[in-house]
Specification:
alpha+beta, Carbonic Anhydrase II, 13-stranded mixed β-sheet, two-stranded parallel sheet, 4 helices
Amino acid sequence: MKTLHLLLLGFLVTSVLAPSCKEDEDVVDCDAYHWGYEGEEDDDTWLNCYADCDGQSQSPIDIAGSSPDAALAALETHYEAVPIELINNGHTVEFEYEAGSVLKLNGVDFTLAQFHFHTESEHTIIGTHYPMEVHLVHKNAAGDLAVVGVMFEEGAENAFLKNFSDHLPASKDDHYSSSTLVNAGDLLPPVGAYYTYSGSLTTPPCSEIVTWFVMKTPVQASSTQIQNMHAITHDNNRSVQGANGRAIKEYN
């Protein structure tokens, strides 16, 4: 009987101290975690190591149910033509922009830092994806971000992207320095209408510090240009997040 009691006691102690197999499986080593878009690193797993990714003002969203706002104005951009650096960061092709180009919002300068591509688009318009979307990322002195999203549809060859047709960095950490002067304004559609809402970064850490401006009119790129970008970036679009009652305003 004494032996039985000892065995039972040992079992109870082991049960308390040892986590279950399920708990072992749920533990995520955030020091070793590398976020991505597929498998065990897809966007459903980001919130395990990035709490903000589970916030209530996340991006991208489906642009639907927007309403005109007479208080809005056309985007005031002052972009300079500059040489540019292309970097494959393992998630997208990022175009680093020299300081000096700004987007003015309510008298505040937001400096254009970089732009990058997602295939297919991250935002949807009334439930519909476009094959590609570019994000022009601007930052003010306080650290707030203003990001302009432009949709691409398949059509004529895009003159801006043609500058880099033979130089897109195909592998992580590859880069290309272009001495050709380019102007990010050439990525914008000729019509200035846009949707705007408050949201977040669409990649970890998903910080909710972004005012989004999604242009209503898409621009065109050839099927080859879109396919060439997708061959590098793959499916690098975060799933659409809930609007959670946020207002989506539009400027026409």
